[in-house]
Design brief:
The complex is a heterotrimer of chains A (285), B (148) and C (355).
Chain A lengths: L15 H27 L8 E2 L5 E8 L5 E8 L5 E9 L7 H11 L6 E12 L2 E5 L7 E7 L8 E14 L1 H7 L5 H13 L5 E5 L5 E7 L7 H4 L6 E11 L2 E6 L5 E3 L11 H10 L1
Parallel strand pairs in A: 4-6, 10-12
Antiparallel strand pairs in A: 1-5, 2-3, 2-5, 3-4, 5-6, 5-7, 8-9, 8-11, 9-10, 11-12, 11-13
Chain B lengths: L2 H27 L20 E7 L3 E7 L6 E7 L9 E6 L8 E5 L4 E7 L5 H4 L2 E7 L4 E7 L1
Antiparallel strand pairs in B: 1-2, 2-3, 3-6, 4-5, 4-7, 7-8
Chain C lengths: L11 H28 L5 H29 L4 H4 L2 H24 L6 H7 L12 H17 L3 H6 L1 H24 L10 H28 L6 E2 L2 E6 L8 E6 L2 E8 L2 E6 L13 E3 L2 E3 L6 E2 L16 E7 L2 E9 L8 E2 L4 H8 L1
Antiparallel strand pairs in C: 1-2, 2-10, 3-4, 4-5, 5-9, 5-11, 6-7, 7-8, 9-10
The chains are: A alpha+beta (285), B alpha+beta (148), C alpha+beta (355).
The complex binds protoporphyrin IX containing FE (HEM) (2 copies) and FE2/S2 (inorganic) cluster (FES).
């Protein structure tokens, strides 16, 4: 008789054959749901250890430097050999924007040139793998105090490491060091471009065979911003030809020229840097 | 559903049977590979040959090294995992006292090996009265204490 | 017609169906987020939410896309089809959460409008390895949105089934876009091949199911009717049609359902007025042809739904000559009454029935 059973949804109960089959289907779906959920969840790449102290403001006193990227240098003391220990904290703005705008506004408002002055800033810290950055937001009244001009001993130690070609991935340090996970790679590409467009200084993340990383700041040959120029190279393997300068606890790459950054491999129908596509994009804007 | 519509469905799926594998495999093959590169930092000094002491923690391994003459000493710090504090500096303090009484050894950053030149106070006998503190001077907090 | 007669309202099985949809979604999301949190103490909730809803949506999409061919291969899957639209709308809602949070996370608080950012951040549309995969997800979401807002039966009637069917064909495009959205997105970041293998397995399953079901159906459609006279076509022998059931014939373009009811044969258009369900796969219940998909009913005598319902389908003229059934494929206007063709039952069979 089961061959002749007929299912109608509005009947209060499905005929036995249908009910039994549906039960089997539900069990199969149950197994599928859990298996897929567990497998996909455990197969995700390990999340980064970045920290973003969202909602927590910290006061930091140090010397502000406008170049090569806006940053504040904080002393912690001198070691056995009399060398100072310090940390240089690049500054970034709220959302997907750099800190330049806010700092300029603050300087105008207070009629001071903050460069090389000891100041106290209030902001949100984000950090990972030994690098620390601070977000300053106009809404938090970030400039707490401005003190004297810093002494000579606070000026950055620079050491030229010559011209080198270095391979890595360009990331936006705000997302990478704390705000987003993943803050790198293809899924995050659009966001990194948006952040770098907004003025957050681009960083080249370099990884060695052991998986350890170093992070170098990217600027133009004369220290000018490279934000627009690096946009199309973000989140993809690139080789950067640059003059390398160890600048206190950060390494700065002074990219030789516009052709100093080039993609490594990848399938490309048209070479990046070609005008056709970016022109369309500009028109949409 | 009428006959042409059913045929259209079949045509679409035949097309998808070709396009889907092409797209899926193509995208997978095109996945970019990131190259490995020698790092510029940390610029660690040459290790001294003898290991006098060793302490292993989840995130790092600490060695006290020396030359055979015991005239030079080195603190070697192997940072295994990314730091999750704003800053991390190493201090040597007399056991039980605070960081202000300590001697700054140096700052550690990204993963890798750090070697700090230290003085004879790191001779094993003398070390028993001292301890190392890993200190975050931004949040002014002690991250870890290491006893030898 | 018993008291059980109801249109497709909010009935018991529909409620059970919806309850299961909800339970399965909740189960999936909790599993994914909990396992992520356990395995990855450094996870961020935003990412867990974006990924759990994304993968749930694509899982639901696979289920939705396999129900059609499964019911065609095995009728026992019909209960799943009954409320497929709610599954579609649920899938859209889940994908909308994923899309909205992605827009917020990746495009908000920037120096341009998030929607401009979506299309202009990454402009490497010429590259496979750098392709702006988010735009693909966006267009898929737009298609799902159009399908979801037109999901009420009201729209099916207002838009005319033709436009609506055309709209529906876009679900396949959307499926392709979603697959490429995943392949050109996270798959190019993840080092573990699990997601890649699952996408491939999912696509292989769907393609196989659809090709198997599709060829089966098209073969049925392609049967050629050779015997013709005076506009009538010979279709089968009268005893081939089981009582209270039908046989389906595709003459020219349209499928026609030939029902046997109280030993008379009646032919009506095979396509249900509700959502195009196959009436010929239904049965006669309480004297009404009942659609297998959602149970709309039509009287065999005139192709009309019993009052107060107003649906009407085309009817056809049937004649029986000896044991041969002849059908005129020219449809009568919808709801036209015509008498059934009485089946001449051989003596032998009568004896069997008496026993
Ligand atoms: C406005 C529309 C959309 C946007 C902006 C968008 C954006 C994104 C982004 C940024 C990712 C990468 C997330 C990550 O893992 O870090 C992603 C992944 C994904 N998306 Fe979408 N998406 C959209 C629509 C859709 C739709 C409609 C679907 C499917 C029904 C979908 C399915 C997926 C899937 C399955 C993933 C992979 C999830 C994973 O990370 O494991 N997306 N999407
Ligand atoms: C939005 C309002 C919707 C309505 C009224 C609706 C109704 C229908 C109907 C009547 C069919 C049968 C078509 C046929 O076989 O001739 C169908 C098929 C289908 N619908 Fe929907 N649906 C809706 C939404 C969705 C959504 C949001 C999805 C999701 C992705 C979806 C996916 C499908 C699929 C995949 C088929 C397959 C057709 C086949 O079996 O070959 N539908 N739908
Ligand atoms: S009752 Fe819904 S299609 Fe026939």
């Amino acid at each position: 008789m089961s061959n002749n059973e007929f299912y109608i949804g509005w009947m209060p109960k499905a005929p036995g054959g249908f009910a039994r089959h549906t039960k089997k289907v539900i069990i199969a779906l149950l197994i599928l749901t859990i298996t897929v959920g567990v497998l996909l969840a455990i197969s995700q790449k390990k999340f980064g250890t970045g920290q973003f102290e969202f909602g927590q403001l910290t006061n930091i006193t140090g010397v502000y430097f406008k170049e090569p990227v806006p940053a504040i240098k904080v002393m912690s003391g001198k070691d056995l050999l009399g060398r100072s220990a310090y940390i240089t904290i690049p500054l970034i703005g709220y959302g997907k924007s750099g800190a330049d705008g806010i700092l300029l506004d603050l300087e105008k408002l207070q009629h001071v040139d903050l460069n090389k002055k000891e100041i106290t800033l209030k902001g949100t810290l984000l950090y990972n793998d030994g690098k620390l950055l601070m977000q300053i937001d106009a809404a938090d009244n970030p400039l707490v105090s401005v003190n004297k001009t810093a002494g000579e001993n606070m000026l950055p130690l620079q050491k030229e490491l010559g011209e080198q070609t270095i391979q890595g991935e360009i990331v936006d340090p705000k997302c990478f060091f704390g705000v987003m996970k993943p803050g790198e790679g293809k899924p995050h590409k659009d966001c990194a471009i948006r952040c770098i467009s907004g003025g957050i200084p681009p960083v080249l993340k370099v990884t060695n065979k052991e998986g350890d990383c170093n992070y170098y700041l990217l600027v133009g040959a004369h220290g000018e911003k490279m934000n627009e120029a690096v946009k199309e190279f973000v989140a993809t393997p690139v080789a950067v030809k640059a003059k390398v300068v160890a600048y206190d606890d950060w390494v700065i790459l002074y990219v030789t020229d516009q052709k100093g950054i080039s993609p490594i491999a990848g399938w490309q129908l048209v070479k990046p840097g070609s005008q056709a596509i970016s022109c369309i994009a500009r028109c949409i804007k | 559903m009428i006959k042409p519509l059913r045929k259209r469905h079949l045509q679409i799926w035949t097309a998808l049977a070709v396009l889907l594998p092409l797209g899926i495999i193509g995208a997978r093959i095109a996945t970019p590979k990131f190259p490995a590169q020698t790092l510029l930092q940390p610029d660690a000094a040459k290790p001294l040959p003898d290991i006098l002491k060793q302490r292993e923690k989840d995130n790092y391994i600490v060695f006290i090294r020396s030359n055979p003459q015991r005239s030079a000493f080195q603190l070697e710090w192997l940072n295994k995992n990314p730091l999750t504090w704003p800053s991390a500096t190493i201090y040597k303090v007399p056991k039980g006292s605070s960081v202000n009484k300590g001697i700054l050894i140096g700052r550690i950053e990204s993963r890798g090996t750090y070697r700090f030149t230290v003085d004879a106070a790191f001779e094993p006998e003398k070390l028993s009265t001292a301890q190392l503190i890993l200190y975050d001077f931004i949040h002014e907090q002690i991250i870890d204490t290491i006893n030898f | 017609m018993g008291a059980s007669y109801l249109a497709v309202g909010w009935n018991r099985q529909k409620k059970i169906y919806d309850w299961f949809i909800f339970a399965f979604c909740a189960l999936y999301l909790t599993t994914f987020i909990a396992v992520t949190a356990l395995y990855n103490p450094d996870y961020t909730f935003e990412t867990a939410l974006i990924r759990s809803t994304a993968t749930l949506a694509i899982l639901l999409l696979h289920v939705i896309l396999s129900i059609g061919p499964l019911t065609r291969i095995n009728k026992k899957f019909l209960p799943l089809l009954y409320n497929r639209r709610h599954l579609g709308v649920t899938m859209f809602s889940v994908a909308l959460i994923h899309g909205s949070f992605s827009m917020l996370q990746f495009h908000a608080l920037g120096n341009v409008n998030p929607f401009v950012s979506l299309f202009t951040s990454n402009t490497q549309y010429n590259s496979v390895s750098q392709f702006p995969f988010q735009a693909l997800g966006f267009f898929a979401l737009v298609i799902f949105f159009l399908m979801a807002i037109t999901s009420h039966d009201f729209w099916l009637h207002t838009l005319s089934p033709k436009i609506w069917k055309a709209l529906h064909m876009f679900v396949y495009l959307a499926y392709f876009l979603v697959i490429m959205h995943v392949m050109l997105g996270v798959v190019q970041y993840e080092t573990n091949p699990v997601l890649f293998v699952m996408v491939l397995a999912g696509a292989a399953t769907l393609v196989t199911l659809h090709l198997v079901a599709g060829t089966k159906e098209v073969r049925k459609d392609n049967r050629i009717f050779k015997l013709k006279k005076e506009g009538f076509v010979y279709v089968c022998e009268s005893q081939d049609v089981p009582d209270n059931c039908a046989k389906i014939f595709c003459i020219d373009k349209e499928r026609i359902a030939l029902f046997r009811f109280e030993n008379k044969l009646y032919a009506i258009h095979n396509v249900c007025k509700h959502q195009g369900g196959p009436l010929g796969e239904g049965q006669i219940i309480d004297g009404c042809i009942t659609c297998p998909w959602h149970g709309y009913q039509y009287l065999p005598q005139n192709g009309q739904s019993p009052p107060p319902f107003k649906e009407k389908v085309s009817t056809y003229i049937v004649t029986v000559e000896g044991s041969q059934v002849w059908l005129n494929p020219q449809p009568l206007p919808e709801g036209t009454e015509r008498s059934g063709a009485a089946i001449i039952i051989p003596d032998k069979q009568i004896i069997e029935n008496v026993q």
